[in-house]
Design brief:
N-acetyltransferase, transferase, 3-stranded antiparallel sheet, GNAT family N-acetyltransferase, 204 residues, Acyl_CoA_acyltransferase, alpha+beta, Aminopeptidase
């Protein structure tokens, strides 16, 4: 699946992206705010990550900046199943592009995609010492659940406390004003087979 926002192309990742991906994420200040990325981050780590891209996950994208010259990978965003069956939004942006609104821009597309896929609730979290990520989540309509959870971080090498957020997604046609309710009521998502088929066709 591919998508275009005002400044970004959101697309699947391929093995040939490994060098550019490793360069974009290869910053300790980025990796320490991610739960599963290792530090230091190598091209082999990028290849392993890209190998996990499959038709079973039609909602993970590289953020590619659209420019007049060569487009460049500036981050990644996606939705993944959690162990309890809920869906979590996660993202990162390369440091030269912090503060320019790219995470919010890509996140708005993910909210629309979640609505299209019939996902009614999204979770997200950030480490306590990364408040900028909380600002992005609030702009996207997420609200803190009031829970602080200690999560593992390969980049930090030790678990660290995180702040949990949630957002409910209005189903198309179910609201008089077609607006989303930012107060989350948790439930399980469904992943329509037709979207998985569409992913296979476009990623082939």
């Amino acid at each position: 699946m591919f998508a275009r926002t005002e400044r970004l192309l959101l697309r699947p990742g391929w093995q040939e992206d490994a060098p550019a991906l490793a360069r974009a994420i290869g910053d300790e200040m980025i990796v320490r705010n991610l739960a599963s990325a290792p530090w230091p981050y190598s091209e082999d780590d990028a290849r392993t990550f890209l190998a996990g891209w499959s038709s079973a996950n039609p909602s993970r994208f590289l953020m590619v900046q659209r420019t007049a010259s060569s487009p460049r990978i500036i981050g990644c965003i996606g939705m993944d199943h959690m162990e309890d069956g809920l869906v979590e939004l996660g993202y990162w942006v390369a440091r030269p592009f912090w503060g320019l609104g790219y995470a919010t821009e890509a996140g708005r597309h993910m909210i629309d995609l979640a609505r299209t896929m019939g996902i009614r609730n999204l979770m997200a979290s950030h480490f306590v010492d990364n408040p900028a990520s909380g600002s992005v989540l609030r702009k996207l309509g997420f609200r803190p659940t009031g829970r602080e959870i200690v999560r593992a971080s390969r980049g930090r090498g030790t678990p660290a406390p995180t702040i949990e957020y949630a957002r409910s997604i209005a189903a198309p046609g179910n609201d008089k004003d077609d607006a989303d309710d930012p107060v989350a009521t948790l439930g399980k998502p469904r992943w329509p087979a037709e979207m998985r088929d569409d992913w296979r066709l476009q990623a082939a």
